Automatic annotation (TrEMBL):
InterPro entries: RNaseH-like_sf (IPR012337), RNaseH_sf (IPR036397). GO terms for molecular function: nucleic acid binding. It comes from Meganyctiphanes norvegica. This is RNase H type-1 domain-containing protein.
Length: 222
């Protein structure tokens, strides 16, 4: 309501202008428009109890699971498989979106400023990206085999980032850049955001991975 009523809001300026224009357009067409604000939590029965429990949970850093994490993980993967919605998560414990966390504290996250590159990186993290392994799964490729090398293996995230012969030169440049940061072991977890490092190092890793993605030209439009 603040955005709609304020002619010059401090944020979401374009969104507020679009809302205002749409309201005027509907009114001009003869619509009777009523805007109602419903407080999300105010006077909701049980809300105070839930808030109290949530605050207590936030203070609990060590999580006591009634089952082993690996058992929970395998149950999750089994349900994903039965639902036909598995993106390779069963074979690789992805560092952010595919891993059960043992603690609730802050999790450093470094995004890339380029929206397209950031989207590709997110796809690589969850295995839902335009590589033949996933494309064949959704029937957009006749094969899951890598079309760019002679290894006759599935083109998945691991193969694209660490194995494919076609990208040996940009991969070597990536490894050299990481070595200059003091990183000698380049693996999937590290590249996709799961490194135990400070924010500046995570940012540098993200930048180097972006350079690799651009150099391979694998995700460019045909």
């Amino acid at each position: 309501l603040y955005l709609i009523a304020n002619r010059k809001p401090n944020s979401y300026m374009y969104s507020s202008q679009a809302i205002q224009k749409n309201i005027l357009r509907l009114v001009d067409k003869g619509w009777d428009l009523v805007i109602q604000w419903i407080p999300s939590h105010c006077d909701v029965e049980g809300n105070d109890v839930v808030d109290h429990a949530a605050n207590e949970g936030r203070q609990l850093q060590e999580v006591d699971y009634p089952e082993e994490l690996d058992d929970i993980y395998h149950k999750y993967v089994g349900k994903q498989k039965s639902g036909g919605n598995l993106y390779g998560i069963g074979k690789v414990k992805l560092p952010l979106l595919g891993l059960l966390r043992k603690k609730i504290g802050n999790w450093f996250w470094c995004r890339h400023g380029d929206r397209k590159i950031d989207t590709i990186m997110t796809g690589l993290r969850i295995g839902r990206v335009s590589l033949n392994k996933y494309l064949s799964f959704i029937n957009l490729s006749p094969t899951s085999i890598c079309p760019n090398c002679s290894q006759d293996v599935d083109e998945d995230c691991t193969h694209y980032l660490l194995e494919c012969d076609r990208y040996n030169i940009p991969r070597q440049r990536l490894a050299t850049s990481l070595h200059n940061l003091g990183i000698t072991n380049m693996d999937l977890t590290l590249l996709l955001g799961g490194a135990e490092a400070d924010c500046e190092t995570l940012k540098r890793i993200t930048e180097e991975l972006a350079t690799y993605i651009k150099a391979t030209k694998r995700f460019e439009e045909p």
